[in-house]
């Protein structure tokens, strides 16, 4: 895969840390990049998954009072986040496992 310019790769990387999503919205030149757009969509999908999952996991743990559910959930979230970050670093446009398949279906931009 061709080498990405620094802004494309940086905004893609920071997208998984949320600040890159804001940069992407404000910088028109980065929005033209397929690579950056792909990873920003993956990051937005990740954050939507995260917030919905936090609500569900908190509900489950408050009803059952099992801390292991929260621990497993946090490990899964960190692993998915790291996979997305490593995809950017390696200039790959691979979907984030489990949640990445929903990006093209629900995020149209």
- Sheet-strand content, in percent, reads under 5%
The count of helical stretches stands at: 6
Query: What does the overall shape look like?
Result: elongated
What is the N-to-C succession of helices and strands?
A: HHHHHH
Per DSSP E runs of 2 or more residues, the count of β-strands stands at 0
Number of individual domains: 1
Structural class: mainly alpha
Helical percentage: over 70%
What is the mean predicted local confidence, pLDDT? Answer: 85
Distance between the termini: 23 Å
pLDDT below 50 for ≥5 consecutive residues: which ranges? none
Main β-sheet description: none
Question: Please, could you describe this protein's structure?
Answer:
The protein is mostly helical and 109 residues long. Helices cover 73% and strands 0% of the residues. The protein has one domain (6-106). It has helices spanning 6-15, 19-26, 28-31, 34-64, 67-89, 103-106. The protein is elongated. The chain has 6 helices and no strands.
């Amino acid at each position: 895969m061709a080498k990405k310019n620094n802004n494309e790769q940086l905004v893609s990387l920071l997208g998984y840390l949320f600040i890159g999503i804001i940069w992407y919205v404000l910088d028109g030149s980065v929005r033209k990049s397929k690579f950056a757009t792909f990873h920003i969509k993956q990051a937005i999908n990740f954050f939507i998954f995260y917030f919905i999952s936090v609500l569900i996991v908190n509900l489950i743990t408050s009803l059952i009072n099992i801390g292991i559910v929260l621990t497993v959930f946090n490990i899964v979230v960190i692993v998915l986040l790291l996979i997305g970050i490593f995809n950017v670093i390696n200039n790959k446009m691979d979907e984030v496992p489990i949640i990445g398949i929903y990006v093209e279906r629900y995020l149209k931009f």
